[in-house]
Write a sequence for this structure.
C-alpha cells in the first residue's frame, strides 16, 4: 500500500517504519509500528494482518495502539 502510493522508495520492515515519515497521526494515513508488527489506518479503514480472514481491511481496530510508534507520510 505505501509502496503503491509512492510513499516508500524501498521496502521497510516494522522496525524501519518506526522512523519512517513524520511523527504522529496523519490526516489520511496513520501507521502504527513497533519491532514486531505494523498496521495502518487509511481514510478511516484499518489495514492489519491480525483479525478475521479473508480480508486484511477492517472497519474497526484489530490491534491496540499501546506500544506502537505513530507515524504518517508528510502531508497525509
Amino acid at each position: 500500500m505505501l509502496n503503491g502510493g509512492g510513499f516508500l522508495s524501498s521496502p521497510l520492515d516494522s522496525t524501519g517504519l518506526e522512523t519512517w515519515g513524520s511523527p504522529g497521526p496523519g490526516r489520511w494515513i496513520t501507521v502504527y509500528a513497533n519491532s514486531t508488527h505494523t498496521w495502518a489506518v487509511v481514510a478511516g479503514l484499518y489495514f492489519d494482518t491480525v483479525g478475521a480472514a479473508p480480508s486484511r481491511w477492517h472497519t474497526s481496530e484489530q490491534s491496540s495502539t499501546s506500544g506502537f510508534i505513530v507515524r504518517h507520510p508528510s502531508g497525509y
